[in-house]
Amino acid sequence: MITWLLAGALFSGPVTLDKISSAEMCGRCHRDILRAWKTSVHAEALEDPLFQDALDLAVTEFGVQARSGCLKCHAPTVQYSSDTALVKKVTWEGVTCDFCHSLKSVSVVSGLPRLLVEFDGVKTGPLKDALSGAHGVAFSPVHTSSLVCAGCHEYRNAAGLAVLTTYSEWEASSYAAKQTHCQSCHMAAMSANVVDPKIKRVKETTVNLHQMPGSHSIEQLNKAIGARLTLARENGMLKVNVEVSNRGAGHMVPTGSPLRQVHLELRVLDASGKSYQGERVYTRKVVDRQGRELAAEHEVFVEAARVKEDTRLKAGERRVESFTFPLPPGVSANVRAQLWYYYSPLAQIEQQKKVSFLTLAQYAAP
After folding, report:
1. Is the dihedral of CA 155, 159, 160, 162 positive or negative?
2. Is 300 found in the same domain as 250?
3. Looking at the domain assignment, is residue 169 inside a domain?
4. Which residues are paired to 114 by β-bridges?
5. Burial, 282: exposed, middle or buried (Cβ in 10 Å; 0-12, 13-18, 19+)?
6. DSSP letters of 169-180?
7. C-alpha distance across the termini of the chain, in Å
8. Phi, psi angle pair for 49, to nearest 5°
């Protein structure tokens, strides 16, 4: 068994590199699945420029030992192939097919995920009746549960802080009690070919969507977060209430890195030309052992020691945010509420920093 100092998860099952198949090899038969997976964040986990920037900063500040901790999730086959120089194609495939489908079991002990991965030619998955002439197949209960995600979406750093808590957030929610697993939202069943018809014809097949849309998807954000805007006038003031709800995510919003944020921005423009604004931020602030608030991704994953503040929305939570602005009788106003998801505060260009996913507007009559 191999223990990774910064990784937060334990892996076992040594293997030589030539036993790990490239996604392109898998795609020769599983074309629909490969096509969807190539558009996923999993496929871009290593080559993403934002991750590469964070990796360089981590190595510069904390040394090469930080590198293995980062690669554990962004290029997990490296833990078995020893391709630390990142020269093999399968390494650059990030969270590649053969990693997930060579996973045999996952357990969580004292908040620490333990994964057993064996590249033995037997591909594991959620289908009980799968057959293949190309490799062995085996039904895997873990692939039907949220545990399959825990290895990378639950992470405790060397300072002892649970930096990533998506799995435990789900485990504490009503979704877990109802056995509604991560795959329900992120890998919904769709009509597709498990195996390309040129190789094997199977009638009316469905496949779990391997695009695995997450927080970068506007559609997923709108499914997760709902909002309602109401106005009231009283004694020369305009009262604005915005009810924000985590109506569709089985974890907190935002989840993942503490640097991710959801901003509610409110703007009021009255008929006289005066403008007002208000804001609420849903996030988790972390500090190091000296109490310094951390604002860089590489520092958060290595040095974060304590949660200073957590204003995120729990699964199923509804929260009413109230704002009051001066608005004299007889003066009208336009009110606009906008929700933004910030996922990379240190990104160089605006498109890499945030995405707008919900806008509400109302008119306050004079």
Report:
1. negative
2. yes
3. yes
4. 10, 107
5. buried
6. HHHTSHHHHTT-
7. 71
8. -60, -35
Total count of domains within the chain: 2
Handedness of CA 216, 222, 226, 227 (dihedral sign): positive
Instruction: List the alpha helices (DSSP H) in the chain.
Output: 23-27, 31-37, 49-62, 65-74, 78-81, 89-92, 97-100, 147-153, 166-171, 174-177, 183-186, 218-224, 297-303
Query: What per-residue confidence (pLDDT) applies to 9?
Result: 53
| Same domain, yes or no: 120 and 239 | no
- β strands within the chain, DSSP E: 2-3, 10-12, 103-109, 112-117, 122-125, 136-139, 154-156, 162-165, 189-191, 206-208, 225-234, 237-246, 261-270, 275-282, 284-287, 306-310, 318-326, 333-342, 354-364
What average pLDDT values come out for the chain (366 residues) when binned by 10 residues?
36 53 94 95 95 94 91 95 92 97 93 92 92 91 97 93 97 97 94 74 79 92 97 96 98 96 97 97 97 94 97 98 96 98 78 88 96
Q: Is residue 213 part of a domain?
A: no
Spatial separation of the C-alpha atoms in residues 162 and 108, rounded to whole Å = 13
DSSP state letter for 352: G
CATH number for the domain harbouring residue 309: 2.60.40.10
CA distance 207 to 191: 6
Range of the domain at 350: 218-364
> Of 189, 200, 145, which Cα lies nearest the Cα of 167?
145
Identity of residue 141: P
Sign of CA dihedral 76, 81, 85, 91: negative
pTM listed for this prediction: 0.90
Q: Report how far residue 89's alpha carbon sits from residue 224's, in angstroms, rounded to the nearest whole number.
A: 35
**Distance in angstroms (rounded) separating the CA atoms of residues 248 and 231:** 25
Q: Judge if 188 and 255 occupy the same domain.
A: no
Strand ranges across the sheet with 275-282: 275-282, 261-270, 333-342, 354-364
Q: Quick one: which of 191, 224, 220 has its CA closest to 208? A: 191
175 plus 237 within the same structural domain: no
What tokens does 121 get?
């030619």
